[in-house]
Amino acid sequence: MALFSFLFGSKKNKCISVIDVYEFKKAVKQHNVQLIDVRTPNEFSNGHIEKAVNVDFFNQNNFGVAFTKLDKKKPLYIYCRSGKRSSRAAKQLAGLGFEKIYDLEGGYIKWCN
Asked: Does pLDDT of 6 surpass 60?
């Protein structure tokens, strides 16, 4: 079972929470949060959540470096188009030491609906 969890990532990370669009909107509108869009610059330019910073998940050379400027103790809110990239990004960010990561369930698609 442990090998299966390692290979397929079914093991839960306690610092990552996937939250619905209602909770995500409430948090980013009521608080000054670290808000990161992990889509490509082209996707970002076609629309994004206000005050989001674009850090392209696919540009791995810049990805880790971009997060060195952020506070690892402060909650981090991330999203992508549908939730797949942000899920992968959240796992990487947990590995970098971020203590609380909120991932938007369904991504920007859900935000717009």
From this structure: no
